[in-house]
Every structure is written in C-alpha cells, then in structure tokens.
Amino acid sequence: MAENKTSLGKELGKGIIKENPTLVMLLGMCPTLAVTTQAANGIGMGLATTFVLLGSNIVISALRKIIPDKVRIPAFIVIIASFVTLIGFLLEGFVPVLYDSLGIYLSLITVNCIIFGRAEMFASKNGIAASACDAIGMGLGFTLALFLMGSVREIIGSGTWMTGIGKMLGIGWDGVTIPVISENPMLLFIMPAGGFFTLGVIIAMVNKIANKKPPQEIECGSCENCPMSGKCDKTEGEQA
Amino acid sequence: MKTLAIILLSAMLTDNFVLAKFMGICPFLGVSKKLDSATGMGIAVTFVMICATIVTYPIHHGILVPNGLEYFDTVVFILVIALFVQMVEIALKKLLPPLYKSLGVYLPLITTNCAVLGVTVLNIDNGYSFVNSIVNALGGGLGFMLALVIFSGVRRKLEYADIPDTFKGVPATLIAASIVSVSFMGFSGLFS
Questions:
Q1: Between B77 and A1, residue with greater pLDDT
Q2: ipTM associated with this complex
Q3: pTM recorded for the entire structure
Q4: pLDDT averaged over every residue in chain A
Q5: Over the Cα atoms of chain B, what is R_g?
Q6: Which positions in chain B have a beta carbon within 8 angstroms of at least one beta carbon in chain A?
Q7: pLDDT at A240
Q8: What ranges do the domains of chain A cover?
Q9: Any idea where the domains of chain B sit in the sequence?
C-alpha cells in the first residue's frame, strides 16, 4: 500500500517539473503562445486544460479495455471533444470574462497535443487512479508554464501583473501595476513576436538548469563527445 | 470580389495562422527543416482546410443550427477533419510515397493541427458566407504554407550559425520564428 502511494505521488509530481509538458516535452505550444498575453489568462487556460485532461484521462483509462485498438484515435478525440464542449458551457455560465478572453482557443483545447499525448501514452495503458494523478500533474505543469510565460509577457509588455484576476474569480484584488515599466511598456512582448521570443528564452533557461542540476550523476567517459566539455573543469579520464 | 480579396490576403498575411494567431506551431517547428517537406505539408494542410470547410459549413448551417445543436460543433468538426486527414494519408501513400515518408508522423498529426480546426470554427464565428469561408480557408492554408516555406529557408541558415550551447535546438528556432513574426507585423494595417 505504501509503495502504491509513493508511485501515485510520482505520477503526480513528474508532470510539474521533470517532465513538464510544455517546457521539457514541448507539447501544446499553440495555447502556450496564444493566450499568455496576461498571467491571469494563462492560469485560466491552464486550469481549463487541466479539467479536460483530468476528465478525458479518467474516461479513457476506464474504457481502455473496451475500446478496440484500431478505432482508439477517433474514440479518444470524441471523448476529448466532449469534455471541451462541457468546459465551454461551464465557463460561459460561471466565468464569462474568461470565456470571452480565451475565445476560439477554448474550442482548440480539443487539439492540444498534451491531452492527446497523455491519452495515448499514459491513460490507455494505466489504471484510473494513476491516470488521474498523471492528468493533475501534467495539467498543473502546463498551468505553471503558462503562468510563467504570461507573467513575463505581461510585466514587460504592459507593466502590470495579474490584471483581470479580480473579475475572473470575483475577488477585490486585481493585480498590481509596476511603476517604471507601465509608463514605457515594451509592446513587442504582448505581440506574437514577443511570444515566440519569451518561450525561446524560457526553454533555453530550462535547458540550462536541467543540464546543470545533476553534474555528479553523469558518467563522463571521454570528453571528446561531451557537450559540456567547454564548461567542465574536469580533465580527461577523471570521473565523477 | 473586393471582400474576397481582402479575406484572402488578410488570412494569408496580416492574420497569418502561424505567425500571428499561433495555430499549427507543432508542424511549423517540426516539418520546416527541409523546403520540399515544408511545401508538401503546406499543400496537404491547405487541401484538408478547404475540404473540411466545404463539409463543415453545410453541416453547421443545415443540420446543427436548425436542430439547436450548435454545441456539437467541436465534436462533429474534429471527426470530419480526422476523416479527411485519413483520406489524404491514403492518397499520398499511393501517389507520392517519398513525400509520404518525409512527412512521417506529422501527417496523421494534421488532425490535431489547430489551424485546421481553427479555420472551420473561425468561419462560423465570423459569420462568413459559404464562398467567403472557402476563400478564408484557402488564404489560411496558403499563409500556413508561406510561413513554413520562408521558415525552412531561415532554418537552413540557422544550421550553420554559431549558437551558444544553451540556445541550440528549439530555443534558437523559436527566436528565429520571433524575428520572422516581426517581419509579418509589417503587413498589419494593410487592409484597415
């Protein structure tokens, strides 16, 4: 039982940092770039996607023995599209502000590679509990990446942070205005070009950190083919 | 006629699906390494977009709206698209096996290309007529192809560039895409 719990925890945790769907596995780029002009939109999109991912992962995992292998792709797509229609209704009814600002990208959650990828790679092979944990982990990882993108673009591009969150959640706090930048915002960052640029830099930073983290565990071998040879202070033959 | 030209050109240039609306980024990054596979992918996507529009428009206005079932749009549209992608796949496998091979896994992935579902949904959302919808799909497809072809040229240059290790691969490609996107910003205001 204890072992079972730790493995569920692992499924939950891996999506957030180590196998982050957007920044490490590079899935679901379209919404990542499109809706992140504001941090609040990023959170909304991330949570909507998490909902669809959770629902579709649970249903697909429950039906994995019933769906014939040959028609699994159309079956998965229909299940995912149904959940997207559902979240569309829920948002239109309860959070109309978010519904308007996500616009067409809400129905495009259907074709988000993350959801389809998790259905194919994980939910169709694993049990319901593990699939649900996987979905929550991946969804939160996606939300985190979107929030990060949105924060960077909103702070530099408009000089504010988290505007619109008040209306979305119905609370009093409606973000902060950053004094110097808000007078001279770099508009480029909320334009499409800035989206590509920000994502490029964030992925480069993730690469840098991911390469740096486990230096002791790398089996060096020879320095000849090592990509780190330029920055490494070990000499040939000396192993960690 | 003038409206049609404006729809075509704005779908192609000012509202370019890839560089301004961020739809279809996966094939844009995945298939743009070589010029011929970029062109092939562009033609396949354009074809699927037009066919899907021709079929989904009558379904939406003829079947779903009269019965009050508009909310089934997403489910129905994605099935139609999946059907056409399957058809293109079979046709390419028989007629152009080299192109079929070089497109690889990205061919079935046209189904999950947001640009295709995007164009069918946008046609409905914008309230276009049947002819306008087809022209919009054509413009969107051509714009997608244009972005892929231009970018395949940029990537060839990028292969020989001396890039810092951290930025090698995807980050450098994204930053190059950002610069190409800046050049497309030059088209904005052309039709306003």
A1: B77
A2: 0.86
A3: 0.84
A4: 82
A5: 17
A6: 19-26, 29, 71-75, 78-79, 82, 108-109, 111-114, 117-118, 121-122, 125, 165-167, 169-175, 177-179, 181-182, 184-185
A7: 35
A8: 2-210
A9: 2-187
